[in-house]
Amino acid sequence: MRYWFDTEFDERDRVIHLISIGILAEDGREYYAVNAEYDEQLANPWLQANVLPFLADQVRVPRAQLREEVLAFLNPAPSEIWAYFGEYDWVVLRQLVGHMIDWPPGWPLSHRNLAQWRDQLGVSALPQQPPDTLHHALEDARWCHTAWQHLTQRAA
Length: 156
Known about the structure:
Helix 3 (about 85-95) links the parallel strand 5 (about 80-85) and strand 6. The protein is of the alpha/beta class. Helix 4 runs parallel beside helix 5. It is about 35% helix and about 25% strand. The protein has one domain: Ribonuclease H-like superfamily/Ribonuclease H (Nucleotidyltransferase, domain 5). A 6-stranded mixed beta sheet has the order 4-3-2-1-5-6, with helices on both faces. It contains 5 helices and 6 strands.
């Protein structure tokens, strides 16, 4: 089962703080959650302008519950987990799941990066994401799937 995901996060004091996560499964299921433990008062101006407005009406989930929900959602075990420039998103997911010894059996140890694949294929542009959905984790995960489909057609 393939999954496409994105997170919104706040990198501060050498720590990456999870704000929200969105995941799209190959079978069409979707998951979205906002971390109840993220302190929005500490958000920098960019996050305040570009991310926090999406959170206004969203239910917040305690981090421990969020972890359990993500683990349950990523079932069946992922064969591939895709993200766009997902290095930080991957760290956030890894931190959410827990220590390396807690990593679920059968899960890939690294994500697949759409930006790298685009470069390898020599594709100059990906489909545009509507500007009013940028930086919403679930909308970004949906766009990752769209970009993956675009690249899959080019790779054939």
